[in-house]
Amino acid sequence: MQFELMASMMCANYGNLEKEVKDLEEGGIDSFHIDIMDGRYVPNFAMSLNDMAYIAKATSKPLDVHLMIEHPNNNIHLFLNRLRKGDTVYIHPEAEYHPSTTLQNIINAELTPGIAINPGTSVETIMEMLRIVKKVLVMSVNPGNAGQMYLPYVGKKITKLLAIKDEMDFEIYWDGACSADKILEYGPKGVRGFVLGTTLLFGKSKPYGETLQDIRQLRF
Asked: Is 38 marked active-site?
């Protein structure tokens, strides 16, 4: 079973970000997940526009930019201008008056459009947007902080999305409290990728390459 592994860079060591990026890239990470928080849509501040731009220049790997900000279309150009063709930008539908307009701007910039859905967001409320996005980032925890507990009812939402993903042509990604048992359960079912934070990747006693190899060798 092939799946993508993304590093949640808000969990990285900012004392030496260049080394973190290099070690993750050499260790075989598939992409870098960038959480941008404005202190309004979520009660926290995380990575900045400059952090994102630095990582974009420091690696050839794709970036997955998760915008946890109110009305992202007001400043979407600041992000789009610093990303590369094929990078992904996720928005939260609840954060925008007309999310389809924001998604179209992402598409026009030749980036990959995605939506992030909170634990309390139902599949039914985002059904029409599923026709224009390529990725759906399912939050298994409430957004805003690392190290939260998994909310088990999210599994039923993933089951609904798995049933329609091929028809509507999108891929599903997991974000939040990503443990080995979640990869073992949902990888074979069709979840395409997993965002790795403190549960599996960061703050461990061995190199990133060894950790990533162990994750890829999980037995299904």
From this structure: no
